[in-house]
């Protein structure tokens, strides 16, 4: 036992001890007082409880065709920033084709991109088996198409001018100028769109919009079909709301661990598809690439490289330059159904005619919004801010796809738009985790040019999903009339029975 102290020394000690204890208590109290209180949960009731007003699609972008097909449209109000639900809002355009038979649920869809409008998806799926049992729901994601406000960086005229002029620019001599153009583009996006929307067009915000749409549709849980970038939307929704998923089919899946626009992976995928096309074309004696597939790369480059310096001017005064020719080629490589059109275009090119290829390039460019595409990628990809790193990526891309090597190689490469993007990233590639998620279905094609097969394997593994493998060369395979894919997909969507483990098939 410690004996009590006597006298003034003891008093001083007691006072000091009391002061120390009091100080400690004060510090503890202050610490507790200074600890930030958890932020209040934003009240989103007014969004989740809104009632939809379905009506004619007239007045929506592409609405005339939808209305003629018996498809209805509506708009869903969402906050631009989910952390500020009382702030500015966006209006998401959605469409609906009612189930033609006994209804199972509403099937929300997305065609990919990022930047591809989805309002017409019910029209695209109208003759598929899902239209019999599901209300097929399309949507133009925030910033895009018939949704408002829209991401806007360039006018159509400015885009065409940039494509034509910059497509002829020699990057060896004008790296600084190209970077300046990229920075100007980023600044234009900020000025015309506003930083608030530009910082909230990423996958996470769209996934939250999907949940509001689910609630507005009166669905307790989400039934979803997404292709290409739509698989990134699906996996993000699964991470955020695993307990609100009924069923998901993710077709042509994006690898969750890589940049969506990884140049080296994409280059290798399209070279593989080009090789498959060249081998198929070589079976015909009049193939514009010749009858020896091993020489196809060189023959193709001999056709398109002169367009860098000497575009072909068409009768309507449009120009087929190198960028347009390769764009048309890449567009055709997405699916074998487009290979005959590519053969026709390349055959015309051998005769100095560029109209067919220019038409293919224009159709491809009209499909998506380049502005939204760039905005999403800049928010979610690992940004390259070093010219040497950019050059390394460029060199590896050329090696992976020799058919598309323009020969303009340098020790440095210009930095892309994302290096100058005015808002910071909101997400990065990662392995998704979703505890309590029901079994999903992933459909991956062995020769997919845009989203290589390995990425589908990775996504299925990460989500614990069943994997359907389709052996072929095309971008996606679900709901395209391929029985060995569509039958198990439909069975899963209707009664939640997953496909057999390791299911692998090919077109008869």
UniProtKB/TrEMBL annotation:
AB hydrolase-1 domain sequence ranges: 107-480
Annotated signal sequence range: 1-29
InterPro entries: AB_hydrolase_1, Serine_prot/Carboxylest_S33
Keyword terms of this UniProt record: Hydrolase, Signal
GO molecular function: hydrolase activity
Matches recorded under PANTHER family: 2-SUCCINYL-6-HYDROXY-2,4-CYCLOHEXADIENE-1-CARBOXYLATE SYNTHASE, TRIPEPTIDYL AMINOPEPTIDASE
Family the entry assigns: Belongs to the peptidase S33 family.
Name the UniProt record assigns to this protein: Alpha/beta hydrolase
Lineage start: Bacteria, Bacillati, Actinomycetota, Actinomycetes, Mycobacteriales
